[in-house]
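Hello again, I could really use a second opinion on something today. For a while now I've been wondering how a particular protein folds. Please have a think about how the structure follows from the sequence. Here's the protein in full, and shout if anything looks odd to you:

***
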Amino acid sequence: MAQPVTEEALTEEAPPLARPDRPGRRSRTVLWATVIVGAFTAALIAVIASARPSSEVAGKSPLLGNAAPPITGPGLTGGHYSLAQFRGKWVLVNFMATWCAPCQQEMPQLMAFARQHAKLGDATVLTVVDDPSNAGQLRDFLAAKGATWPAVDDPAATVSYGLTGLPSSFLVAPDGVVYAYLLGEVRASELDSWLDQGAVKGFGRA
């Protein structure tokens, strides 16, 4: 005998049916996820590989490609120096102060660069006093580290070079043109790369 259908049975909703798994859809989802993750990873690796070390960044400056502003003044250990007297060589114009911790930390790299190129005779470092009140301490610091390159006190240089912070270095080509503006601690190997790039582009000639 058939069972009677009650009003409650008519109004009760049937439980939802579970959607059967679709292997094709699941595999396509996994495939797309793999492609997206792979593309993101490849892009990230490319960015990391092409990025310059954080310690040294090529900065923007209106001086790039133009004649370097003159630097001239008394040397910290005597005599008188000017940027112009080093025409024909690459010159790393390095602004410095002893209260700048990164400036002190980059000294071994400056020493290595200066030592190597003193033998080659193609480049030199020119330290410029950033803080005139710190000139005496800077002289003693450079002497204690064994730096033999010239260091000059020219208060006008920080203005003409548009200095905004330390460490800051400008790489001046043998023809007197500003080739690179470097923010942060310099590295000898990176400086050599800049020289090589500049020579290829024709900046290595006076």
Summary: Helices lie at 7-11, 23-50, 101-105, 107-120, 135-145, 157-160, 188-200. The chain has two domains: 23-52, 57-200.
